């Protein structure tokens, strides 16, 4: 769920370049700071980012371990769906051939 929203994926991409404050993360978006903070809380609950407490600043940091786990799961799902789509393509191709043969026999 944390990766479902494009803003959260963009935030993770931005944090991949280095730590950033909420204000810095909000700059590319047409969103209020409270809206960005809500997205950060979702990412934090998913343990994809952490937020430190340095005086009045709370820089955000990308957490690689959970992101690598999510990436591994996504890759497994991609392979499963590619296999399913390949089987569907083969099935449809065979159906097309059968239809052609049927038309040739009747023609």
TrEMBL record:
Coiled-coil features, chain-numbered ranges: 78-105
Alphabetical list of Gene3D superfamilies matching this protein: Winged helix-like DNA-binding domain superfamily/Winged helix DNA-binding domain (1.10.10.10)
Keywords, comma-separated and alphabetical: Coiled coil
Signal peptide interval: none
Transmembrane portions of the chain: none
Recorded GO MF terms: DNA-binding transcription factor activity
InterPro entries recorded: ArsR-like_HTH (IPR011991), HTH_ArsR_DNA-bd_dom (IPR001845), WH-like_DNA-bd_sf (IPR036388), WH_DNA-bd_sf (IPR036390)
PANTHER family reported for this sequence: SLL0088 PROTEIN, TRANSCRIPTIONAL REGULATORY PROTEIN
Protein name, as recorded: Putative transcriptional regulator
Organism: Solimicrobium silvestre
